[in-house]
């Protein structure tokens, strides 16, 4: 039920309100703890019905503002009593984001999910409060940041309860209220209130999965007709919830269903796998065969045309043997076949509409072309999309009739492109691009026109001079002649990219993207708009077994951070040269680099014409680099800051894994191909490095690391053998596990923690899943933890190994939305984290755990060792500045870092004076290329910035100033005089090899 207004108390409702308040006070007295309520002590009844009592007592807002109630309360009671609309409480917006998880989650799980969702909605204070439960131990790990690309402020309600993907959806109006009907393979049909998401009826009776669904207004009743895999048709009364009729119409699955009133009775026209087209009269309880074809040739495409007194049915018949694909029209009154139209390709869509009062049938074909003809006679055939390609027209939708619109068709393709066609001229009006995967469903809605005065001032001669008025009329007339107007037609599309989008059909522009589903969205439908309220809504359902209601009038923008259009399948985090970075790939041909401390997007560059499936991070002398692997480009290594490609290679076999490491002087990239061969290459140049490792076969997993100062690589094989190699020489350092001693090695990880170097190996087979941790120096097995085996159809759990200042940790994520961590040395001290979506990848680095869940990223940090604050990030302690905070000034041997320090000193010495260019202060023995490279590195490290004012053409930043001891100012307050010394050499001191003249400052310098 909807909550009554909390600020309205008239004489008739005041006694009831006071009584409800007393009842609510008595119920909550048992959990009162001072001014707070301890919901962890509440009874099941109170958790289930507290929201209902609060609504009657006028205290629903305060209850929904209690986050501990949302953690412990029953989701059904919260939804049934919650208001809907743009004035929703902040807590409801956060709560609905992952409602499908909350419905079946325990309080501890719900707490973690709500804390992550609070960060996605830009409420860090709420997230912190959720991690500090009253009377309970605080969670040891907390979410530091999360992206929010899959959060939409237009979400108004969510439907849960189904256990399998939802493939069918219908909208209905019951007593003037909007409802949605959902069904799928779980054999149930559910009716939800669209405003609140509350379940009104759950119909059970089908003995197989529901294959078709339709709603129909019949008199004062709204009826829902469903069909299943066993050929049964069932009718349900949406108002009473009772089953009205059940008739077995087909021998096998029903593939298509339409409803109509025929001779005053509710009837259903259906096609099935048994090859028959039938009309079923429910009130007479009889089913008549109209057409019989070969079994399996009626795929479900079905359309109705004609007046109620003379209806006809059209269905698509697949090709069989020498018989081509065709569309057959049958009269429902006499069951006679009217005509049959053959086609050279399979029919992918079939709809009927009217053009100037003439019934027209429209079909799309698998070859990318479209056909239309007279629906009753089959005559006057025409073709649109003459140059279509296979897959262009996989989905067809004809908008409802509207006097202001031309006769148009909307089609969707396998490439995610939507096209709008003027069927009168057979021309394409718009091509809508935005989806990244196949379009699965289309719908449309005509928005009501706003009320207008009789006189339009824009077209009134009295408001403009005569010549301007005539010119305006000419331009409007010309536009109407060249292109028909589509009025206020809004097109809705759902896609396999997990999104719903809305489009302005007249301009062809995208209006909004509705994110929130965690799987392909199978169906989308629109409710009739309410002209008096200015609100209009749509509903969608998909493979995540949920339905969602969207407010199409909501144009609220939200901060999304890094946007990943697909699920993040590849993830790597590292700290090259002191910069905590994160690189991701999600199948859209882009390589994204983020700041791992804040989650901010640094770059999103095209990585080629094929999806990236493996990534790595490393450091070379040129700076931080990313390595990506794709089927089109092979291996590509590029600079993180500029995107410049250092090298690329196309290996003979597909690469399935990649890892970067080695020493700072000789960094390497190790790849693993589909044949089980590991290949080492120089990270900076791509030159191959030979050795015994390159001849080692059957490798199934690898990881790089360091034991003290020695770079190593660890490999695992399908026979269970785990070997530690010396990376520099390629020689075997130690066999950590001999062949046959353990099951197949699915993944390995290496880290040097506070107790020494550790290797974690994941062993996975059909009946076994375990993680083993070994001391890399001694080869001693430290711990073994057995985990649950993933069920059939679930993904593979992902492995991570990292460390905090006090211990080494193992993390396993998936195959669901849980991350489990424990002490690597002992196997104990288990900690669980839960996220809103299924986990695909995780990575440990810099005492932070980064997890990809669905299309989102989240980073977790231990509560005892939180990530550095903004001040610490901007100005680290001086003791760490030269070693970690500024990688460009790291104290290491070599000319380049010393040159950068020299440039910083010169900028600081010349600050406040007019001087020459920065490069002219250096000896001619210093290569200009080295100077340019050093300046570029300082700019990228945010130590200096170019400027048109000041000295030398550059200005020193606060970070750079903190690294160099300032020159003391003169005692009289004036800036110090510029130094009169020999030109600086490449090592920073005066140039000794030559006797250049001292540089004299220009006249006027003091």
**Major sheet:** 4 strands, antiparallel
Identify the overall geometry.
Answer: globular
Structural class: mainly beta
Mean pLDDT: 83
Q: For the largest beta sheet, what order do the strands appear in spatially?
A: 3-62-61-60
Query: Gyration radius, to the nearest Å?
Result: 34 Å
| Percent of residues in helices | 10-25%
Strand content: 35-45%
Number of helices: 15
The residue ranges in which pLDDT falls below 50 over 5 or more consecutive positions are: 1-8, 450-464, 479-483, 870-896, 966-983, 985-1006
What is the end-to-end distance? 82 Å
Structure in words:
- With 1006 residues, the chain is mainly beta.
- The protein contains 15 helices and 64 strands.
- The strands form 17 sheets. It has a four-stranded antiparallel sheet with strand order 3-62-61-60, covered by helices on one side. Strands 4-35-34-33 form a four-stranded antiparallel sheet. Strands 5-6-7-8 form a four-stranded antiparallel sheet, with no helix packed on it.
- A hairpin with a 5-residue loop joins strand 42 and strand 43 (645-649).
- Helix 1 packs antiparallel against helix 2.
- It is globular.
- Mean pLDDT is 83; it is low at 1-8, 450-464, 479-483, 870-896, 966-983 and 985-1006.
């Amino acid at each position: 039920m909807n909550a009554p207004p909390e600020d309205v108390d008239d004489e008739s409702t005041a006694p009831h309100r006071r009584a409800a308040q007393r009842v609510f006070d008595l119920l909550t007295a048992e959990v009162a703890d001072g001014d707070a309520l301890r919901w962890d002590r509440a009874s099941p009844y109170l958790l289930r019905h507290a929201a209902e009592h609060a609504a009657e007592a006028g205290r629903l807002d305060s209850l929904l503002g209690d986050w501990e109630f949302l953690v412990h309360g029953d989701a059904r009671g919260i939804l049934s009593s919650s208001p809907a609309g743009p004035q929703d409480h902040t807590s409801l917006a956060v709560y609905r984001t992952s409602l499908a998880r909350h419905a079946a989650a325990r309080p501890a799980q719900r707490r973690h999910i709500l804390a992550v969702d609070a960060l996605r909605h830009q409420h860090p204070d709420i997230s912190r409060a959720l991690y500090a439960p009253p009377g309970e131990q605080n969670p040891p790990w907390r979410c530091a940041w999360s992206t929010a690309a899959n959060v939409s402020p237009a979400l108004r309600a969510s439907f849960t309860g189904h256990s399998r993907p939802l493939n069918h959806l219908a909208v209905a109006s019951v007593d003037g209220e909007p409802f949605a009907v959902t069904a799928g393979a779980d054999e149930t049909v559910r009716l939800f209130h669209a405003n609140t998401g509350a379940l009104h009826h759950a119909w059970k009776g089908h003995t197989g999965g529901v294959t078709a669904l339709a709603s129909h207004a019949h008199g004062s009743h709204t009826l829902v007709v469903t069909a299943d895999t066993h050929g049964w048709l069932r009718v349900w009364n949406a108002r009473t919830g009772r089953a009205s009729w059940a008739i077995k119409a087909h021998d096998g699955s029903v593939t298509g269903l339409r409803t109509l009133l025929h001779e005053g009775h509710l009837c259903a026209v259906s096609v099935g796998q048994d090859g028959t087209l039938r009309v079923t009269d429910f009130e007479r309880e009889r089913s008549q065969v109209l057409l019989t074809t070969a079994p399996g040739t009626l795929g479900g495409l079905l359309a109705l045309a004609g007046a109620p007194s003379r209806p006809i049915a059209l269905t698509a018949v697949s090709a069989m043997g020498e018989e081509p694909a065709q569309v057959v029209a049958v009269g429902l009154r006499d069951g006679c076949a009217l005509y049959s139209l053959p086609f050279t390709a399979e029919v992918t869509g079939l709809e009927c509409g009217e053009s100037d009062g003439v019934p027209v049938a429209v079909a799309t074909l698998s070859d990318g072309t479209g056909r239309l003809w007279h629906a009753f006679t089959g005559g006057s055939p025409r073709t649109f999309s003459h140059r279509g390609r296979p897959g262009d027209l996989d989905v067809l939708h004809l908008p409802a009739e509207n006097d202001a619109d031309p006769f148009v068709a909307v089609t969707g393709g396998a490439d995610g492109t939507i096209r709008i066609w003027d069927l009168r001229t057979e021309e394409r009006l718009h091509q809508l691009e935005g989806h990244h995967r196949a379009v699965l469903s289309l719908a449309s809605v005509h928005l009501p026109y706003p009320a207008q005065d009789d006189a339009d001032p824009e077209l009134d001669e009295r408001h403009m001079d005569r010549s301007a008025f005539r010119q305006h009329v000419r331009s409007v007339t010309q536009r109407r002649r060249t292109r028909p107007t589509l009025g206020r037609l809004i097109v809705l599309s759902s896609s396999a990219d997990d999104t719903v989008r809305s489009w302005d059909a007249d301009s062809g522009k995208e209006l909004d993207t509705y994110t929130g589903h965690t799987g392909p969205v199978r169906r989308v439908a629109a409710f009739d708009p309410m002209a008096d309220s200015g609100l209009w809504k749509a509903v969608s359902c998909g493979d995540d077994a949920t339905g969602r209601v969207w407010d199409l009038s909501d144009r609220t923008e939200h901060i999304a951070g890094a946007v990943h259009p697909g699920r993040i399948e590849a993830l790597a985090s590292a700290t090259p040269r002191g910069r905590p970075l994160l690189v991701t790939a999600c199948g859209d041909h882009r390589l994204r680099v983020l700041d791992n401390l804040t989650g901010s997007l640094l770059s999103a560059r095209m990585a080629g014409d094929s999806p990236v499936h493996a990534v790595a991070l490393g450091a070379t002398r040129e700076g931080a680099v990313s390595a990506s692997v794709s089927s089109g480009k092979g291996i590509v290594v590029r600079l993180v800051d500029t995107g410049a490609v250092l090298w690329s290679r196309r290996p003979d076999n597909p690469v399935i894994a990649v890892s970067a490491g080695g020493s700072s002087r000789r960094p390497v990239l190790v790849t693993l191909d589909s044949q089980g061969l590991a290949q080492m290459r120089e990270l900076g140049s791509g030159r191959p490095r030979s050795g015994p490792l390159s001849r080692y076969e059957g490798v199934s997993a690898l990881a790089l690391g360091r034991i003290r100062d020695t770079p190593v690589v660890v490999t695992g094989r399908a026979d269970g053998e785990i070997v530690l190699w010396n990376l520099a020489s390629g020689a075997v350092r130690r066999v950590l596990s001999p062949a046959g001693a353990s099951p197949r090695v699915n993944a390995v990880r290496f880290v040097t923690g506070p107790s020494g170097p550790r290797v974690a190996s994941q062993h996975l087979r059909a009946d076994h899943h375990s993680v083993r941790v070994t001391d890399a120096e001694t080869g001693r097995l430290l711990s073994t933890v057995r985990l649950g085996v993933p069920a059939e159809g679930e993904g593979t759990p992902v492995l991570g190994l990292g460390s905090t200042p006090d211990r080494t940790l193992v993390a396993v994520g998936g195959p669901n939305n849980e991350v489990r961590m424990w002490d690597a040395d002992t196997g104990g001290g288990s900690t669980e984290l839960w996220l809103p979506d299924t986990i695909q990848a995780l990575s440990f680095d810099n005492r932070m755990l980064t997890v990809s869940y669905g299309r989102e990223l989240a980073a977790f940090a231990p509560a005892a060792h939180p990530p550095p604050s903004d001040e610490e990030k901007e100005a680290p302690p001086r003791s760490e500045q030269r070693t970690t905070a500024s990688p460009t000034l790291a104290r290491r041997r070599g000319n380049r870092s010393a040159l950068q320090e020299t440039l910083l000193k010169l900028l600081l010495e010349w600050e406040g004076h007019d001087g020459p260019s920065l490069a002219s202060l250096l000896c001619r023995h210093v290569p200009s290329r080295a100077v340019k490279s050093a300046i570029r590195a300082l700019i990228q490290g945010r130590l200096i910035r170019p400027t048109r004012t000041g000295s030398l053409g550059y200005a020193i930043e606060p970070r750079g100033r903190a690294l160099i001891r300032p020159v003391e100012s003169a005692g009289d307050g004036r800036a110090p005089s510029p130094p009169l010394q020999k030109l600086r050499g490449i090592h920073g001191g005066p140039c000794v090899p030559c006797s250049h003249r001292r540089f004299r400052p220009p006249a006027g310098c003091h």
